[in-house]
Amino acid sequence: MFHILNLQIKLTPKIMASHILHLLLLLLSISLANCIQARTLVKHFAHCMSTKHINISKQIHTPNSPSYSTLLQSAQQNLRWINSSKTLKPILIVTPSIAYHVQAAIVCSKIHAVQIRVKSGGHDYEGLSYLCKTPFVIIDLVNLNSITIDLQQETAWVEAGATLGELYYSIAKKSPTLGFPGGLCPSVGVGGHFSGGGFGRGGHGSGRPGRPVPARLSGTGNFPSRLSIGTGPGQVCGFGTLLRKHGLAADNVVDAYFIDVNGNILNRESMGEDLFWAIRGGGGASFGIILAWKIKLVQVPPVVTVFTIHKNLDREGIKTVHKWQHVASKLPDDIFIRIIIQHYDERQTMVDAIFNSLFLGKTSDLLPVVSNYFPGLGLLEKDCTEMSWIESVLYFGGFKRDDAWEVLLARTVQYKSYFKGKSDFVENPMPESALEGIRDRLLEKTSVFLIMDPFGGAMDRVPEDDIPFPHRKGNLFSIQYLVQWRADGDEETRKHVEWIERVYEFMKPHVSRSPRRAYLNYRDLDLGVNVKDNTSYEEAMVWGRKYFKGNLERLAKVKKQVDPGNFFRNEQSIPLLS
């Protein structure tokens, strides 16, 4: 029997509407249809979603709707999948504005035996938030994007359709000394970003890359025109700059509202600690649909310092990167220095190594620390720029210093590309010969990047089973590999994918092993996929232990408990285990 908990949800009017009676009428008025032909499925599903009590026609977008193509293209951040003949398009797209719309979509999907894909920001590397091999609907959470900040408690409720940019903007409008340790790309949705752990990108599963870092940046007080690479040719997003001080986004989630396979709206208390544990790093799309997160905000100083230093990856540059491996995870928690290694332009005869940093304090306090730990970097006062935390968000997002904060509210990516990504974790410093090998392989191709994000600090202090994200103490840094291209076609895709596979194979001796580990929000289907609907736990271990290590077993037991029919599934969803 379908039911919903009678919760008094005090987030926003959108999620307060539970509509129990209407859902009951919906189920009572529609008989199970086993054999609906494809041409009538859209009509039947749309009818199922609407009742005489509630007209939600504005929330339903069929292939004949003018809005359908726009919504579908906005969901697809990786151009590899936009024109693919190998994937189906959704039978319709639902854009809920209240919780009932999400509940109804789940009920109707079960009635008509179609799959669900949930889009928060659409940044899944492999497109799993908007692709499916069987008939499916997309639930696009774009309208569920309210943010409510409690300054007294230093917390915020954030609906799952909000973006990181909207969250950071909302925090900064309320306080200059509060922040949040999420990723660097403003257009990433919080639904998938937090549920995958909350570093890098995310969709209701993961992320995406972007535009190049120019060969030289001034670092003299004005923002460079383009700094990072991330969700549009431009930003290379990585783990957030507050990672070493405050951990992952998911480490700072304290409550959630969630709809399970039966349509129940649950919070932390009613879902129980096992499910609450699972959705903070295990990928929410395996268990249900997240409506909103309650997060703990963190203190940031009124003045922070940023710098960007470029070096060629020549003999001296390689020595500097090699030294970085030894010190980056041992620096004081207030200092975050990542490296972006890139070869973007075919006119470049050398590979760039870009040292990109945030310090939670003033330049005068930063310089002696870097001089002590990392003198070979050659950091000078003129390389540093002081600013507010929200200005640093703009800086790492690739915006100009005088840009209005409102640029963070843009949900669409101006430039999209075809891309493939992979990830690794490094436990011991790589030898200089490995860095030389990386350089030589990057020179073979353009629009290629390695992003190296340092760990240590707070990441060392959190046990690896505290949330499903297990990559904690013992990891010096993570690596994200990205290759981008502009032309469509199977041959073009093949040569770029083969290149990144060669680099990944070359790196095998220098990264984690038994198993070689990866990050869920840098999703990689090359690691393994589920065998349609019946993947066993043992089969899923091939890829699952790479993302979750020993936490996979607990995730699979939670999955069995909350979704025993495996309704919420995809190519890398959590398997069932009794």
TrEMBL record:
Keyword Membrane annotated: no
Record has Glycoprotein as a keyword: yes
A Pfam short name: FAD_binding_4
Cleavable signal peptide: 1-35
Sorted UniProt keywords: Alkaloid metabolism, FAD, Flavoprotein, Glycoprotein, Signal
Pathway noted in the entry: Alkaloid biosynthesis
Domain FAD-binding PCMH-type: 86-300
Cofactor dependence: FAD
Superkingdom classification of source: Eukaryota
Coiled-coil ranges per UniProt: none
Family: Belongs to the oxygen-dependent FAD-linked oxidoreductase family.
This protein's name: FAD-binding PCMH-type domain-containing protein
Organism listed in the record: Castilleja foliolosa
